[in-house]
């Protein structure tokens, strides 16, 4: 039998585990009590929204929740389908999606493992590095390096979901490619990401040789190449380059680059650079390595993404109004399509295909996509620019409006709002196409008939603008009496331990 103190200690451990359980699991009946320490239930916890589904309030998730479709991501040379809503909430997004390691069933023998690395079950989401006050800094996304949020690189965070990041150290620990001159008089730039022939940009001399090493797998670019045709050669992995044709978009196999000039005619020479930018900023060991990565900055003895280091000022109006603030939301650069409901609110559904990054920046999104905008007599609003905005962070005089295109899609727990005003446009679409829009209701009676709307005393606006912008909602509130389950669940756990 366990001692009384051991039982009390284990009871406390269970209480901590219980407190971490998502609300949906806490509300289970006592006959199906959750054992947080069992692998199967830990997996269930990882895949269920916790008490902060949209991240820590000081570092909220930024992608669109419940967006339908497939998002195609390249990982280790493989193109993998993730859900379109990836990164929108705290969720174990890699589970069943990350190639091989997270049990996709696509390994060589098509077998599914019984367990996965811990990071497969860790929750994370995409965040705004300029709106993240957590001690653990967010990192620039490796999955979607070309995607943008409000004009800045896309960042992810495990810390905002209460996790300790194990993935980055294992899978994004590379360093920017750089060169080393082993022999000869060839030279390097300050961070060794470019290498030059001797005397460049002046002419090299006769009878010169260089041996240069670069990391295998690095891709090199020719910025300039001018040598004596047929006599002065650069050799890379058995291929010779001379005259005006240098190596461009060439991947190093051995990493060895050789240069030779004969004893007669000379020329301007060459400049080679590498654009291979592998590795997370936080994994760079020193300032030299940090500055080789274009996305990184060295700050207070640490290597961080430039935005995480404070490079947050974006003046381009394509990302919405800066003063007063009302910036566009959503991730720009996503590959794929989504179906938007362009039919009347409450009426028959009318689906149209839009780009997956619809609304992420100021653009004429309806042109060539909305059914009314495809004919020769398209209305003027088809060419007007708009984007989705956060209703709680939009300080324009003209309020944003609730979107009907994606009624079940959310951003940080709130329905999508759109704005023409933040893009410098006069909204002609809402009055013409959305008679049930909140702003089109002229009195409190008409406003009160629409559940999504609220009367301010002067006008009818989206309920979020009037009532809920003070905090994030909890999509899984505790049922009445759910807290009373804890003593019973704890008792069941103790009885099981002592059985």
Label this structure with key terms.
499 residues, alpha+beta, Jelly Rolls, 5-stranded antiparallel sheet, 31 strands, 22% strand, disordered N terminus
Can you describe what's shown?
By secondary structure, the chain is an alpha+beta fold. Among the domains are: 180-274, Sandwich (Jelly Rolls); 317-434, no CATH class. The chain has helices at 4-20, 23-26, 39-46, 167-171, 287-292, 429-433, 444-448, 463-468, 485-498; strands at residues 70-75, 78-83, 125-127, 139-140, 148-149, 152-153, 155-157, 180-183, 187-188, 194-196, 209-213, 219-226, 233-236, 239-241, 250-251, 256-260, 269-274, 296-299, 302-305, 320-321, 326-327, 331-332, 337-341, 351-355, 387-389, 401-402, 410-411, 414-415, 417-419, 453-455, 460-462. It has a 5-stranded antiparallel sheet with strand order 8-11-16-13-14, with no helix packed on it. A 5-stranded antiparallel sheet has the order 9-10-17-12-15, with no helix packed on it.
Describe, in short, the structure shown:
This protein has 499 residues and is an alpha+beta fold. It contains 9 helices and 31 strands. Helix 1 (4-20) packs across helix 9.
